[in-house]
């Protein structure tokens, strides 16, 4: 499995369909918008102020993280470099490649963190221990 760095992660601008009278609509389509196909969608909400989420890495999972409402910060770490993204636009998604530690914090009230993922939920894909993550990154 290729080991990605934080430089491989980026904000993807989603298509926006605007109507003065009816508001906005953004679209993600398999085979067009993302470098992976979406198998699962989940979302975080009602995160209390000051709380953080994440604190894990995935071995194989690709994700697109969207602030569907409100705002929060995502900090990625590849074992060497850290990179933070502040998400606050529902038409932007952060592409998170596999093998990166992520922390989510600074949630605004009412924030909704929507995640489009390349696979169904598999606990064995998680690395939840930071020391284990560092060893994983060190081993080739
Ligand atoms: P977890 O990934 O630990 O959330 P976070 O890292 O953002 O704090 O997931 C929290 C709980 O939800 C955990 O018990 C596993 C469960 N869960 C699922 O059952 N399916 C899913 O797709 C996800 C993402 C979590």
Q: What proportion of the residues is helical, as a percent range?
A: under 10%
What number of domains? 1
> How far apart lie the N and C ends?
10 Å
- Helix count equals 1
CATH architecture descriptor name = Sandwich
Which small-molecule species are bound to the chains here? thymidine-5'-diphosphate
Say how many strands there are: 12
**CATH structural class:** Mainly Beta
**Overall pLDDT level:** 97
Which percent range describes the beta-strand content? 35-45%
How many strands, which pairing sense, and closed or not: the largest β-sheet? 5 strands, antiparallel
The CATH fourth-level homologous superfamily? Jelly Rolls
Describe the structure.
This protein is mainly beta. It has a single domain, classed as Sandwich (Jelly Rolls). Helices cover 6% and strands 44% of the residues. The strands form three sheets. Strands 1-9-6-11-4 form a five-stranded antiparallel beta sheet, with no helix packed on it. Strand 7 and strand 8 (82-87) form a beta hairpin. The longest helix has 9 residues, at 130-138. Bound molecules: thymidine-5'-diphosphate. Residues 40, 42, 44, 53-54, 56, 121 line the site of thymidine-5'-diphosphate. The site of thymidine-5'-diphosphate (TYD) has 7 residues, from strand 4 and strand 5.
Question: Key terms for this structure?
Answer:
140 residues; mainly beta; Jelly Rolls; five-stranded antiparallel β-sheet; 1 helix; binds thymidine-5'-diphosphate
């Amino acid at each position: 499995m290729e080991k990605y760095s934080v430089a491989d992660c980026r904000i993807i601008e989603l298509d926006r369909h605007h109507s003065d009278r009816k508001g906005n609509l953004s679209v993600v389509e398999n085979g067009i918008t993302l470098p992976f196909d979406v198998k699962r969608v989940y979302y975080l909400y009602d995160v209390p102020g000051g709380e953080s989420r994440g604190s894990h890495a995935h071995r194989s999972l690709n994700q697109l993280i969207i602030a569907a409402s409100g705002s929060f910060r995502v900090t990625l770490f590849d074992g060497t470099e850290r990179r933070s993204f502040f998400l606050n636009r529902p038409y932007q998604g952060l592409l998170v490649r596999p093998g990166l530690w992520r922390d989510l914090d600074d949630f605004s009230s009412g924030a909704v963190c929507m995640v489009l993922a390349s696979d169904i939920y598999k606990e064995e894909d998680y690395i939840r221990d930071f020391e284990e993550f560092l060893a994983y990154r060190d081993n080739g």
